[in-house]
Amino acid sequence: MFSKFLPAPGTPRVLMFATLVNTFGNGAYLTTSALFLTRSVGLSPAQVALGLSAAALAGMVLTTPMGYLADRRGPKQVQIGALIVLAACFTGLTQVRDLWSYVLIACVIAVGDATVKAANGAMIAGAVPPAERVRTRAFIRSTNNAGIALGTLAGGLPLLLDTRAGYLAVLLGNAVTFLLAAVVVRRVTAVAPASAPAGGPRMVALRDRPFLAFALLDGVVAALYNEVLSLALPLWLIAHTRAPVALVSAALLVNTIGCVTLQVWASRGTHTAADAVGVARRGALVVAASCVLFGLSAGRPSWLVAVLVLAASTVHVLGELWLSSATFAVVFDLAPDWAQGQYQGVHQTGRQIGNMVGPPVITALVVGWGAPGWSALAAIFAAAGLAAPHIIRWGLRRSGRQAATAALAAAG
C-alpha cells in the first residue's frame, strides 16, 4: 500500500533512510550554527563569513578529486568514510575556541559534505537501473527537505535557550546522526570500483566543456532560486513593503511542503538528458514568472502583498521542482559509467560557485533596484531557461561522439 510512496527496495530505500537521519541533524545545526559561533565561541560575524568563504574555496578545489576517489575506490566506502570524518568534525566543533581552528574544521566539513553527495550520486548511478535513477534521486531530494525541516524544528529549542550546553547538544547530536547514517549505508550493496579506459585523462569531467558549462549554469541558477525565499524575500518585505516579515515563514512552508510532496511527481517522464531539455526550459521560465509576481507586490496593501507572495511562492516551487528533475537527468546521463563520481563532484563544484555568486547578485538586484530588480532577476532565469537546452544538446552530441569512439576502440 505504501510502496508507491517509497523508492524501490534495496539501495534506493536504504539511501533514503540514511538521508533522513543525516539531514535531521544537519537541519538542527543549520538553525543554531550562527548563534553558536558568535555567542558561544565568540567569533565575529566577519570571522564566521571568512570561515565559510574558506570552506567554499576548499570545496571547489577538492570536490571533484573526491568524486574521482569514489569512482576508483567505490562510492559506498568513500561515503562511509566521509560520514565518519564529518562526525569527527562536528565533535571537534565543540572544542573550537578561535578563528583558525574553526576555519580548518569548516573546510573539512565542506569537502566531506560534497564528498557524501558525490558518492551518493555515484552509488545511485551504479546500483539503480538508468530508467529509475531520476525517480530515486527525486525521493532522496524529498527526504532531504523533510529531514532538514524536522531538524530545523528540533533546533528551535536550543535556539530559544541560547545556552552553550544547548548548542553543544546540537553539535554532538549531529555527529551521532552522521555515525548512524554511516551504519545505515553499510547495508547498501557495494558498487564495484570503476576503472578508467587506458590512455585517457583521469579527470575527464574537467575536460568535458559542455558539462562544465551546464554545471556552472545550473549552480548559479540553483543558488539564485534557493536565495529568492531565504534572502531576497525578507529583504524585499522590509525595504519595499509594509507587510509582516512573517510572510517569509509562510513562503518557506509552501516551498518545503512542495519539495517534500511533489518532487517525485515533477520527475515523471524525465529519465535522460534529452528528456530534460524541455523540462529545464519550463522550470526556469516558471521561476522567472514567480519573480515577476514578487515584484508586483511593491507598494501594495498588506493583504494583496500576502496574496501575491503566496501565489509567487507556489509558482516558484513548481519551477524549482522541474529544474531539479532536469538536473538529475543531465548529470546522470552525460557522465560515463566509469566516471559518475567525478561528474557528480564537478556538478557540486558548480553549486559551490553559485553559492558564492548568488547572495551578492540577489542583494544588489532586489534591495538596490526594487521592483525592476525582480524583473532583472526574472530575465536572468528566462535567459538561463533558453540557454540550458542548447548546452544540454551540446553535451548529448559530445557524449554520442565519445560512445562511438569507445565502440570503435573496443572493436579493434
Describe this structure in words.
With 412 residues, the chain is mainly alpha-helical. It is 83% helix and 0% strand. It is built from 13 helices and no strands. The chain has helices at 11-41, 45-73, 75-93, 99-127, 130-154, 156-161, 164-185, 209-240, 247-266, 273-295, 302-334, 340-369, 371-411. α1 (11-41) runs antiparallel to α7, α4 packs across α12 (340-369) and α8 packs parallel to α10. The N and C termini lie far apart (52 Å). The model is unreliable at 404-412 (pLDDT under 50). It comes from Catellatospora citrea. GO terms for molecular function: transmembrane transporter activity. Residues 11-401 form the Major facilitator superfamily (MFS) profile domain.
* Average pLDDT rating: 92
Helix-strand pattern, N to C? Answer: HHHHHHHHHHHHH
**What would you call the shape?**
globular
Task: Provide a count of the helices.
Answer: 13
Percent strand: under 5%
* Percent in helix: over 70%
Pfam family, one: MFS_1
Domain Major facilitator superfamily (MFS) profile: 11-401
Membrane topology: Multi-pass membrane protein
Transmembrane segments: 14-36, 48-70, 77-93, 99-116, 143-161, 167-185, 211-239, 245-267, 279-297, 303-332, 377-396
